Each structure stands twice: as structure tokens, then as C-alpha cells.
Amino acid sequence: KNASALTSVDLGGREIDDGGMKTIAQGLSDNKIITDLNLSYASFGVVGIRAIGTMLSCNTTLTSLNLMNIDWSPHCMELLANGLSKNISLEDLCLGWNGINDADAVVLSEGLQNNPELKKLWLMGNSINAEGAKALATLLSNDQLSLTTLDLERNSIGSEGAQALAVALRTNITLKKLCIGKNSIKANGAIALGDALRINHTLEA
Q: From the record, what ranges are coiled-coil (predicted)?
């Protein structure tokens, strides 16, 4: 089909290599129709991510991007975050199950600090510890942003990370859904979150 006739492209599970991803990204750079792009379980790597980052820096239509469980490698987040820092349309970003670590989370958070459109950020099943959670908490503290969903389930943020999120939740007025199950959060972390929820009246789950 002609790309101009599509609003959603689902390439999940396809064998898309770096060359294929470059071609797709180039085609989407100036596309004004497609809003949803699913590239989960694809096989492209850092070259493909660079192409996606470049595409995000100039695409003004894409609102949903799924990059779950791709061939993630060092430098991928830097390339992606660079594009996200210039993007003005993306509302839903899934980066689950990519082995994303604390350093990646810091870079991602920095790239999203000036991205007011993003509403949903899915980071489940990664390798984010306390330092990464602290970085992500800055997204909740930034009153210029409007995140409504943050999924950190099945990471390793622990009580220290939970406490950082709790501090941010005390002043955040946009987040409605926070998923932090299976994160080795002990009593002190749970208490901090409980105290924050007495003040935060926006969070629903």
C-alpha cells in the first residue's frame, strides 16, 4: 500500500535489519499521515536506532512508537534520546525488555526534559536500578511535562529508587498510572510511597 494511505504500521516481529530500518525511517521522516509505528522484536541495531533518532527529530506526526525487545546495544539510547529531544509529537513510547540500564535511563530522562507531548513511557523488564529511577523521577518533578503513565515493572529500583519517585509524586499533578511491581522495594520504600499518596490525588494505579 501507499504509505500516505496508512495511519498505523505494525512491523512487530519482522526480520528488519539495519538497512531495512534506514529505508523505513527515511520514508517516515516527512510523512504526515502515519501516527502509530510498532517495531517490537525487530532485529536492527545501533544503525537502525540512529535512523529512528534522525526520523524523530523531524517527524511531526508520529504519536506512538513501540521499540520493545529489539537488538539494543551501547549508544542506542544516546542516539534515540537525541531525536526525542527535538520531537514535538510523540505521546506514547515503549522501550520495554531492552536491557536498559541506569546510564540509559539518565540519558533518556535528559532527552525528554523538553518533550511536553509525551504521555506514556513504558520501561518494564529492563535493568534500571536506583540511580535510573532517580533520573526518571526528574520527569515527574518537571512541571512542564505531562506524563500520565510510567511503567517500571520488573526492574530493580529498590527502596532508594521508590523513595526518589515518592518525592516527585508529592508535587506531580499529571501521572495517573505508576507500575513498579517486582522491583525489590522494601518497607521504607513502600512507606515513602504511601506517604506521597496521601498528598497526591491524581494517581489512580
A: none
CA distance 114 to 101: 22
pTM: 0.96
Residue 204 lies in a domain: no
Determine, yes or no, domain membership for 85. yes
Question: How many CB atoms sit inside 10 A of residue 57's CB?
Answer: 15
In a domain, 16, yes or no: yes
DSSP conformational letter for 3:
G
**Residue 205 maps to a domain:** no
Task: In whole angstroms, give the CA distance from residue 172 to residue 157.
Answer: 19
Expressed as residue numbers, the domain containing 107 is 3-199
Distances (CA, A) of 29 to 33, 38, 60, 123: 11, 16, 9, 25
Coil vs helix vs strand at 42: coil
Per-residue pLDDT of the chain (205 residues; tens, 9 = 90+): 455 568 999 999 999 999 999 999 999 998 999 999 999 999 999 999 999 999 999 999 999 999 999 999 989 999 999 999 999 999 999 999 999 999 999 999 999 999 999 999 999 999 999 999 999 999 999 999 999 999 999 999 999 999 999 999 999 999 999 999 999 999 999 999 999 999 999 999 6
Based on the structure, what is the number of domains in the chain?
1
3-state secondary structure of 151: strand
Instruction: Evaluate whether 182 touches 154 at the Cβ level (below 8 Å).
Output: yes
